[in-house]
Structure formats: C-alpha cells, structure tokens
Design goal:
- This protein is an alpha/beta fold.
- Helix content is 33%, strand content 20%.
- The protein has nine helices and nine strands.
- The chain has a four-stranded antiparallel β-sheet with strand order 7-1-8-9. The protein has a three-stranded parallel β-sheet with strand order 4-3-5, sandwiched between helices. It has a two-stranded antiparallel sheet with strand order 2-6.
- Strand 3, helix 3 and strand 4 form a beta-alpha-beta unit.
- The longest helix is centred in the last third of the chain and has 17 residues.
Length: 230
C-alpha cells in the first residue's frame, strides 16, 4: 500500500456504511490525482443472470451528466440521418460505417441505430458485442427517435448490466462536481437499479455497494438506505 493510499484510507472510517449524502461529501476529500477523477459505483446484486427473468439491465440519463465527452456513431439513413447529425452525432453512416468497423476503426464510444438499419448492424454484431457497443432497445440505443437517443447519450446517459456474478460497475460523475450533484447522480442511479429489481429476486436485493474515485479506496454504502431509494 502506497503512502498516498494510506493517507486516503485514514480520511474515512472503513468499517462504517455511509449514507448517500455523507458518502458524496467524503468522496470530495479523497481527491489525490492530478486529473479529474471519475466517481465509480460498484454493486453486487442478489440475482442470478443465468435466468432471463433475473437479468438486470437498463439505462438512465444522470441529472448532472457524467462529466465525460462521449462520441456517438449512428446507423441511420435519409431523414433519420439528418436528424442524428442535427442532434450532435459525431459519425452517421450505413455501409461505410460497417466497413470502417470491419477495418478496426473505432472513433466512437457509443453506437445508436435506427430499427431499419439493424440488419446492417447485425453484420458486425460479433465485433461490437464483445466491446459492449452493440445497440439494444433496452438501453434506448435502438430507436426510431435517433435524435433523442443522441442527446441522451451526449447528456450523460449511463448504461448498466449485471455480469455473470451479479456485479454492476458504472461511472456516475467527476470529483469536480459539487457534493450535492454527486449525491443526486448517485440517488438517480440507485433508483434505476431498484426499479429493475426482478419479481423473482428473493431476500436482500443489493448485497453490497461502494463508491470510489479512480485512484481512491472504496467507501461502503448503507444498504438499508439504498433499499429505500425509489
């Protein structure tokens, strides 16, 4: 453990579970890097994603965004292509975009697709899928309203999905945000997770949850408080 890390550990009680407001304030005290660190949340849910009815997946637009510049590529043609460009899409295309992706050109962070272009996107599903870039209706990235999708992604949309062990990780802001902004983003994220609770999930839904900065130790969150955030 480095000297810097030890100093950060001493700034909060590692045995305590913090409420959202106190955790958000404490995160501000843990800034140590020279760059604007990302606020990250890590959760473990009491679900078994091997069962389709226990897959927790969705998207939300954070009240204060992520603080990150996101490059959006859109598969659309005709009027929809024009709408995507007007909404601020970085790249808009069809066959040409497929060719670029097959060539290994990935100058974007998120892919949005109009439904009538999903046949094209299917050609590169094996490339996009493993990179977590495959558009999906559940995250609002396959939609006839491509303009709104682009605005949401640019405005701070966060996608989440449990892994095989029920874990979820997401970036929900920057340490340069105010403590109140951090708390509001965190509350919105927890609300979205709780809304996705499967009817078949038994017992305590959120088993563990913690927040941290890119370069900081993690602060445990109060699970009782989290369960009450609706």
């Amino acid at each position: 453990m480095s000297k810097r890390y030890k100093q950060l550990v001493e700034k909060f009680d590692g045995s305590k579970a913090y409420g959202v407001t106190e955790a958000s304030t404490t995160l501000k005290d843990l800034k140590s890097a020279k760059f604007d660190e990302t606020i990250e949340i890590a959760m473990n849910l009491n679900v078994d994603p091997r069962h389709a009815d226990q897959m927790v997946r969705g998207a939300l637009v954070l009240p204060h965004g992520t603080g990150k510049t996101v490059r959006v590529a859109v598969f659309a043609k005709g009027v929809k292509a024009d709408e995507a460009k007007a909404a601020g899409a970085d790249i808009v295309g069809t066959d040409d975009l497929v060719a670029d992706i097959k060539a290994g050109i990935f100058n974007f962070d998120v892919v949005v697709a109009a439904p009538d272009c999903m046949g094209l996107v299917g050609q590169i599903g094996r490339i996009l899928g493993p990179k977590g870039l495959m558009p999906n209706p559940k995250t609002g990235t396959v939609t006839p309203d491509v303009a709104t999708a682009v605005k949401n992604v640019k405005g701070g949309q966060v996608n989440f999905r449990v892994d095989k062990k029920g874990n979820i990780h997401a970036g929900i802001g920057k340490v340069s945000f105010g403590a109140e902004q951090i708390a509001e983003n965190l509350t919105s994220f927890i609300t979205a997770i709780n809304k996705q609770k499967p009817a078949s999930a038994k017992g305590r839904y959120i088993k563990n949850a913690a927040v941290s900065l890119t370069m900081s130790p993690a602060i445990k969150l109060d699970l009782v408080e989290l369960a009450e955030i609706k």
